[in-house]
């Protein structure tokens, strides 16, 4: 596991101890971030990395020019790996780490008035949280026209419309599917 590109490109990342965290493969991460970079969604972005694990996705975003990233993770071994990875890559100055359950973190961030242009969502495949997380993040934390990226099992089928976000692309890489949702742009009254 490594940072693919950008200012920290090529640096190795630490994986969390144990089997509770499923890191995104370098192949999937490279494809995902090439899509995001080509679409101009990384430069100066304010990123949310929910279910951050080792932080590999948020660190990749920071390495490629995002302005800031909030990492949310509650698992202690994953948090230890995340902190080590932020320090090793020099991305710690642009990062905020919340040791919290995802749903509580969404509530806290919404109460604080935080808004994001890009959300990277990787809940456990068997958690049943995908729809709830998408709806909560889209409706409470995203800037109008923001992008939400959901990593899930390739057999999972999510609705094309969830809350204020709409599916606009789905890519499959072996057992992994990457779904790209966009939030509605709000119109002036």
TrEMBL record:
Region named Disordered: 1-23
Compositionally biased residues, Low complexity: 14-23
Keywords: Methyltransferase, Transferase
UniProt GO MF annotations: methyltransferase activity
GO biological process terms held by the UniProt record: methylation
Xref: CDD domains: AdoMet_MTases (cd02440)
SUPFAM superfamilies: S-adenosyl-L-methionine-dependent methyltransferases
Pfam families: Cons_hypoth95 (PF03602)
Protein name: Methyltransferase
Organism the protein comes from: Trichlorobacter ammonificans
